[in-house]
Amino acid sequence: MRIVINNKDFEDSMYKQLGIACAALALFACSEKESTQTTQPEAKAPVTENALSQYKSQAKSLLANIREQKPASELEQESANLVATSRNVLSDFVTKYPQCKDYLDALDKAADLIPSLPLEEIESGYHEDGKLPKYSDPVCYHAKDLLVHPATVQAIAKLGFTENAQYQDAELEIVEVIAHFDQVERALN
């Protein structure tokens, strides 16, 4: 007997799960590459533990609220708060990794604009770095994503959640940012 599944939601769910698995694999590969690097940061400054713990707590709360499918206005505000916290973390990050300054400063200047952009432009310009200067150290990329992913959720929430797929997209953004956060946390400690 052969069973045929023609359920679009099931297919979408499977693609989302595949996307999460691919993102986790890519992050693992990035972390392996970074661990073999011999370049040491030029400056050693203490990192604000409060900013790191606040970011982690806010990201986990946002993820839980996305999974509960809270209203778009609440998720928009919560993701905006996470963007604001990311800016504090990035400031600390540049102190320890000055080689990321130009890259992360350009991102910081665009932070208020990003959530108002079309999702395709956010993807090409900030996820894929099309609007950012080149970076010299892979650790810079992980730090950048602490701002870009919640800003993307903010943009999704501004458009509104009319389908489950939008909640799934927002969830994937925050799952991925938590993985990037782990890389940043290790780099700062």
Automatic annotation (TrEMBL):
PROSITE patterns: PROKAR_LIPOPROTEIN. It comes from the Bacteria. This is Imelysin-like domain-containing protein. It comes from Pseudoalteromonas luteoviolacea DSM 6061. The lineage of its organism: Bacteria, Pseudomonadati, Pseudomonadota, Gammaproteobacteria, Alteromonadales.
